[in-house]
Amino acid sequence: MANAMKGLLIGGAIGAVTALLVTPKNGKEMRESLKLKSSELTASARERASLMASQAADKAAAARERVNEFGKVAAEKVATAAESTAGVFQNMKNDAQADQEDNKQTLGSSPSAGASSSASSGSATGTATPSHVYQS
């Protein structure tokens, strides 16, 4: 688009200069004609630049809107993944605590049963592991 604008301005300038040089005019008429053409080209360039700036602003706003929308979707996906991960970790923690409680109960009843059977048999060599070793 910028190349087309450059081509239009350069082509217009070349055409205007060629027309002025080919047409027989005196010095004063030539200067007036050059001023007029230069004013026309300047106005045309300003108008075109204004239009292009407006189009660029519109495209930038549309791009900003798309980026914001993409960011919102990405944030929602991250939040969903975080919630899911937190749920999995909570389940794992609950399972570990339940296993730990089961182990405490199993170890808590075994040593006492072993101690009573060894005490009744007269042997005091029971090697029960203290229950505090399994606590976290």
From TrEMBL:
Pfam families reported in the protein's UniProt record: YtxH
Lineage: Bacteria, Bacillati, Bacillota, Bacilli, Bacillales
Residue spans of biased composition, Low complexity class: 108-136
Region annotation Disordered: where it falls in the sequence: 90-136
Identification of the protein by name: Gas vesicle protein
Organism: Paenibacillus methanolicus
